[in-house]
Specification:
mainly alpha; two-stranded antiparallel sheet; 3 helices
Amino acid sequence: MAKQTVDKKLLLKVAANARLNLTEKEVNLFLKDFKEILKAFETLDEISVEGEKPSFQPIQLENVVRKDEVEKCLSQEDALKNTRNKKDGYFMGPKAL
């Protein structure tokens, strides 16, 4: 893999992709930081990953919801017994205008 030259042109390209409008002062400030960040990532190039499988999800996903089971439902009378706001066998809510 060819080594990328970190310069003002590359920084402005990355900033444009991120839709950042950088001032000249910000460009000079970020150029130093950008070089350090990319240098830190170069250490990953040194790691041998021969024979390793990619890990797109580090924690195994699993279904954590309970299993659906058929149970006895509340009767309409039991469902409405603790409310004052009922009419004709239904819950009564506020009027919508």
